[in-house]
Amino acid sequence: VQLQASGGGLVQAGGSLRLSCKASGINFSLYTMKWYRQVPGKQRESVAMITADHTTDYEDDVKGRFIISRDNRRRTVNLQMNSLKPEDTAVYYCNTKERRDYWGQGTQVTVSS
């Protein structure tokens, strides 16, 4: 299983970024996909998830600002991040679990005030 994340960058507060994660090695449409983020010195935290039937769930701090979606034909999960805040600054990781956790390589998101 391989997860390849992209789309991070530097943006001003209030701006938007779109992260993408392309999966290979799994029957993508059957798996729950998640986005996590981590800042130095803190535990990795779940941000958003989308199940095989497209049910979504979000961490409270991002509800109403972030949107997770999936494109099963392209084997891709996306995270549209709007109204970004400096506290959203982190390395973002995509994740899935097939007997064990698999992680993408992480993509840096930096939000300046």
Q: What can you see in these coordinates?
A:
By secondary structure, the chain is an all-beta fold. It contains no helices and 11 strands. Strands 2, 4, 5, 6, 9, 10 and 11 form a 7-stranded mixed beta sheet that branches. The protein is globular, with a radius of gyration of 13 Å. The mean pLDDT is 97.
Strand count: 11
- Strand % is over 45%
Number of alpha- plus pi-helical segments: 0
The helix content is: under 10%
Q: Could you list the spans in which at least 5 consecutive residues all have pLDDT below 50? A: none
Distance between the termini: 37 Å
**Sheet with the most strands, sense and barrel status:** 7 strands, mixed
The backbone outline, from C-alpha atoms, is globular
Radius of gyration equals 13 Å
* Average of pLDDT: 97
Question: Which labels suit this protein?
Answer:
single chain; 113 residues; mainly beta; seven-stranded mixed beta sheet; four-stranded antiparallel beta sheet; 56% strand
Concise summary:
With 113 residues, the chain is mostly beta strands. The chain is 0% helix and 56% strand. The protein contains no helices and 11 strands.
Topology:
Blueprint: E1 2-6, E2 9-12, E3 17-24, E4 33-38, E5 45-50, E6 56-58, E7 66-71, E8 76-81, E9 90-98, E10 100-103, E11 107-112
